[in-house]
Structures are given as C-alpha cells and as structure tokens.
C-alpha cells in the first residue's frame, strides 16, 4: 500500500471508529447468536490481556466494553455494532486456571462453534500481552485457527510497559513464531490502550472490512 492509499485508509478507519458504536448482544450459548448480516471482527486472547480495553480505545469510549482487573470477567461473546457497518466481537479470555473446568469447557465449546461456523467473520485479532509474550495456550489457539483456516492477526497489547529493546526482542520472537503459520497475517500490530500507540493503525486495518 502506497503513502496515499495508507493515508486514505487511516482516514477511513478514523471516521469509522468515530461513528456510533452500540452494544448488540451478550451471547452465552451458540443458539443466541445474532443473525448473520454484517462483516465481523473478533478479539481473542488470554484472560486479562486487554481485549475490552482495546475495544474501548478503538471506539474512543471508556465504558463500551466492560473492563476488569479480575481475569475471566468476560464470560460471553459480546457483540457491538460499529457505525452500522461492522460488528466487533469481544470474546471470553482463555488460560485462567481459577475458572471452574465445566465453565471453561462451556466457553471453549461456544467459541469453537462460533469461529468454525460464522461465515461473516473476516478476521480474529489474537491479542498477546507484551509483558509476557506468546504462551503455550496462545500457540494452541494459533494451531486451532491454522487447522481451520480462520484468518487471524497478532495484536500486541500493553506496549507501554516495555522498554524499546524488550519490544524489539518481543517482535522478533513473535514474528519467528508466526512466520510459517498459514492463517496468520504477516503484520504484527503493537498497541497500548493507555498511550494510544497503534490504535490508528489497527483502525485502518479493520476499516477495510466495513460494509459500504
């Protein structure tokens, strides 16, 4: 993408995410999914990785998606309608050991069915906490997405917590992990909900999926 095209994408993303964004549904079971209409982008990752904070930062709203310091707080698929053009899906986090096994299994089943069967899902933003890097359950998620050909892109969160050298090392290590993965997008976006780093870039990337 050339400079003019990228500038246009940035402006399109800015306008899209400046538009109205409304809560649509909290889906605890697969039979409660909203009708398939608009393109969808989902946000996945470990518990407490910052999914809800990132959704709030993207939309410029502090309380759109509920945030908490308690891992495992998001226990449903939460759908948000952005400017009547795109659906954002905040998914339950994975990897939190304190959640009862039966509940974790139920979440996993709902997520599995959603990701495999949602024809309008265009991309999964797989969030990785920059302080910790890629963990085993992140690799398991990548394996699952690769095997089912579900497109995903790595989004690093909480970048403000790292020094520059640590960031460079993290990016290299993460790129090494994703380089040969068939469903992974090659670009890794580094973000911070606190400082706003990478937010405009991610808006531009996701804006290409908006309808109309």
Automatic annotation (TrEMBL):
GO molecular function, one term: GTP binding
Domain of life: Bacteria
Positions of the EngB-type G domain: 37-212
GO biological process, any: division septum assembly
Gene3D superfamilies per record: P-loop containing nucleotide triphosphate hydrolases
Similarity comment: Belongs to the TRAFAC class TrmE-Era-EngA-EngB-Septin-like GTPase superfamily. EngB GTPase family.
Protein name: Probable GTP-binding protein EngB
Gene responsible for this protein: engB
């Amino acid at each position: 993408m050339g400079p003019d095209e990228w500038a246009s994408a940035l402006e399109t993303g800015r306008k899209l995410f400046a538009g109205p964004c409304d809560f649509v549904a909290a889906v605890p079971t697969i039979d409660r999914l909203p009708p398939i209409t608009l393109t969808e982008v989902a946000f996945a990752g470990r518990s407490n990785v910052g999914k809800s904070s990132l959704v709030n930062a993207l939309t410029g709203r502090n309380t759109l998606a509920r945030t908490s310091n308690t891992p495992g707080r998001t226990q449903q698929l939460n759908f948000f309608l952005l400017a009547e053009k795109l659906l954002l899906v905040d998914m339950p986090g994975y990897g939190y050991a304190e959640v009862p096994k039966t509940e974790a299994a139920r979440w996993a089943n709902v997520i599995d069915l959603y990701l495999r069967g949602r024809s309008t899902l265009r991309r999964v933003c797989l969030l990785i906490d920059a302080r910790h890097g890629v963990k085993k359950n992140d690799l398991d998620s990548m394996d699952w997405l690769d095997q089912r050909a579900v497109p995903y892109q790595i989004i690093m969160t909480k970048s403000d917590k790292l020094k520059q050298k640590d960031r460079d090392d993290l990016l290299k290590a993460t790129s090494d992990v994703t380089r040969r993965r068939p469903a992974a997008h090659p670009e890794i976006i580094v973000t911070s909900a606190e400082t706003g780093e990478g937010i405009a870039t991610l808006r531009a990337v996701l804006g290409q999926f908006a309808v109309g």
